[in-house]
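User: Hey, quick favor. My workstation is busy. Could you predict this chain's structure for me?
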Amino acid sequence: MTDYTFLDALREQLARPENQSPHNRFLGIEVVHLEHARAVLRVPYAARLAGNATNGVLHGGVITTVIDSAGGWSVIAALGRRINIATLDLRIDYLKPATPGMAVTAAAHCYKVTRNVCFVRALAYHADRDDPIANCAASFMIKDTTLVQEEATQA
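Assistant: No problem, here it is.
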C-alpha cells in the first residue's frame, strides 16, 4: 500500500456493496468501524428478518451472522492483510431477545493471534454495549494461500 494504510484501504473497499458477501448484502449488514484487531458491524432492523412474524423479534441466525462477520473482520484487521480464514468455533450465549424495530450492532475483538488460529470475543447489542443481546467466543482458522502457492511451486 502506498498512500493508504491497510485499514484505510479495507474500509474504502468494504464501503462498496459489490465488495461485500452476497449474504451480508442481503441482510443489509453495514461496516460501522474498523481498527487494528477490532470490527463493529450493524444490521438494520427489517421485518422480513424476523424469526417470529407475530412479535417481530429478529431471527437468531441474523444475529449469528453479524457476530460471525464482525469476528472475521476483526481477524483480518488483526492480521493486517486480506487472507483466507474460516470460522472454527462460534459459541454464542443469547442473553435476551432483540427488540423489534431496532438495529443490532456486533462489536468483535481479535485478542489472540497464533500461527494457525485467531481467537475472538464479541457482543451483539442495540445502543448500549453494557446491555448485550448476545455474547460470543469464537476461533478462526488462518489459511495462508501464499504458503500453499509456495509449497506447490517447490513440489
